Amino acid sequence: MATVHTTETRRAYEAAVLPLVDWVQGRALKLTRSPADAEDLAQEVLVRAFRHWGTYDPTKASIKAWLGTVVRNTFCNRYEAMNRRRDVQTAHKAEVEITEGPAGGQLEVLEARETVLAVRAAVEALPEEFRAVLVAVDLEGAAYLEAAAALGIPKGTVMSRLHRGRKHLRAALAA
C-alpha cells in the first residue's frame, strides 16, 4: 500500500536513493539487456521505491539490498505480466482462427475441443500440491507472490512446484 510522504521522508528518500540511481540503472540493464527497457525499469523502480519508502527498514537490510530486491521484483512482475499478455493474445488468436476458419473447419474445432479436454484431464490428474500452484499461476494469472500468499507457502516453493507441475503436465500430454 502506498504511503503519504512528508517533506522529511521525501528528503530521506532522496538522500538515500538518488546517489544510487546509476547503480539501479546498471542492475536494470543487466536484467533487461536493453538500454531503453532498462531506463523504463529503473524509472518504475524509483517510483515504487518512493511509494513504499515507509517499508524500508535500515536495520534489516542495506539500501542497496532493498533497492536490489525492488529491481528484481519489478522486473519479474513486468516479465510475468508480459508473458501473461502474450499467452492471452496467442489463445485469443487461436480461438479466432478456429471459430472464423474456412467453412467446413469442423475438424479443427473438434481437435481444439479434444486438446482442451486432454489438458483439463492432465491438470486434474496432477498431485494437489502441483495442481494448486499451476492453476493459480498459469490459469488464474497470479504472480508468484500472490500465489504464495493465497496458498500459504513461500515464493520459492511456488516456483519449484510450478516447474515440477509443468514438467508432469508435459509428460502426461506427450504420452
Please name the defining characteristics of this protein:
elongated, Arc Repressor Mutant, subunit A, Rna Polymerase Sigma Factor, Chain: A, mainly alpha, 175 residues, 2 domains, 8 helices
Write up this protein:
There is one protein chain. By secondary structure, the chain is mostly helical. The protein folds into two domains: 100 residues, Orthogonal Bundle (Rna Polymerase Sigma Factor, Chain: A), CATH 1.10.1740.10; 73 residues, Arc Repressor Mutant, subunit A (Orthogonal Bundle). Helices cover 78% and strands 0% of the residues. It contains eight helices and no strands. Helix 2 packs parallel to helix 4, helix 6 crosses helix 7 and helix 7 packs across helix 8. The N and C termini lie far apart (46 Å). The mean pLDDT is 82.
Describe the structure concisely:
With 175 residues, this protein is an all-alpha fold.
Q: Report strand %.
A: under 5%
Q: Figure out the total of helices.
A: 8
Instruction: Write down the domain tally.
Output: 2
The pLDDT mean sits at 82
List the helices and strands and how they pair.
Elements: H1 7-17, H2 21-32, H3 35-51, H4 63-99, H5 106-125, H6 128-139, H7 144-151, H8 155-174
Helix pairs in contact: 2-3, 2-4, 3-4, 6-7, 6-8, 7-8
